[in-house]
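thought: user wants a sequence for this fold. calling inverse folding tool.
action: design(structure=
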C-alpha cells in the first residue's frame, strides 16, 4: 500500500478487514489518494486491485456524524428510484472516525434527458411519506447537529426542528436584526403558508 498520512496502521487494518468482507475474499489495500468531495471531512479513494471504495475521515469526536450518515444512506437505499452508495462500514480507529462507502463513478448531467431522469428520481424519493415529519434519530447538516423530534405537522416540524435552530446558530455567530426577525416571523407564519 502506498503511504498515506491519513491511514495509520490501525486504521489501515480496520479498512482492510471491511474491504475483505465487502469483496468476499482476503484482500489488501493497493492504493489510496485524496479526492475532493466536501469541506467538512477528508475524503479518499481506496483501491484494492480493480475495486474502489470512498472513504470519509474526521476526528473521532465526530463519529456520531458518520453513524447518522450511514443510517441515512441505508434508509435512502430503500428508494429503488435513486441510487445511493452502499455503506460498507463505519467506526473509530485511534483519533479518527471513518465511513467507508461503495465508490460510485459519477458523471455530470450532460443532457436534458439525464437531468429529467435525475429529477424524476429525486421526486420519487420525496414522495415517500411517513406518518410523522422527522426521523427516529437526530442527524447532521454538515457538522451541525440537526434535530428530528417527530411531529404530525410539517409546518410545526420545519419551524421548530429546522428554521429556528438555524436562526439560533446565526444569532450565536453574530447575526441580528432583520435576518433574525424575518426568520422568526416566517417560522410563526408557516402554518398559514403551508397547511398540512
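)
observation: tool returned 196 residues.
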Amino acid at each position: 500500500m502506498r503511504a498515506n498520512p491519513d491511514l495509520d496502521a490501525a486504521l489501515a487494518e480496520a479498512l482492510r478487514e471491511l474491504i475483505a468482507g465487502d469483496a468476499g475474499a482476503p484482500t489488501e489495500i493497493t492504493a489510496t489518494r485524496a479526492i475532493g468531495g466536501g469541506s467538512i471531512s477528508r475524503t479518499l479513494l481506496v483501491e484494492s486491485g480493480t475495486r474502489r471504495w470512498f472513504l470519509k475521515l474526521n476526528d473521532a469526536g465526530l463519529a456520531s456524524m458518520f453513524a447518522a450518515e450511514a443510517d441515512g444512506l441505508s434508509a435512502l437505499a430503500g428508494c429503488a428510484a435513486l441510487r445511493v452508495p452502499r455503506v460498507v462500514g463505519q467506526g473509530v480507529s485511534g483519533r479518527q472516525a471513518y465511513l467507508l462507502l461503495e465508490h460510485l463513478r459519477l458523471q455530470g448531467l450532460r443532457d436534458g434527458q439525464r437531468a429529467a431522469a435525475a429529477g424524476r428520481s429525486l421526486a420519487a424519493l420525496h414522495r415517500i411519506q411517513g406518518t410523522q415529519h422527522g426521523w427516529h434519530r437526530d442527524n447532521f447538516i454538515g457538522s451541525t447537529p440537526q434535530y428530528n423530534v417527530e411531529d404530525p405537522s410539517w409546518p410545526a416540524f420545519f419551524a421548530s426542528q429546522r428554521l429556528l435552530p438555524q436562526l439560533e446558530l446565526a444569532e450565536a455567530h453574530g447575526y441580528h436584526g432583520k435576518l433574525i426577525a424575518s426568520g422568526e416571523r416566517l417560522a410563526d407564519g408557516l402554518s398559514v403558508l403551508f397547511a398540512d
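thought: summarizing for user.
answer: Here is the designed sequence. The CA atoms of residues 116 and 147 lie 32 Å apart.
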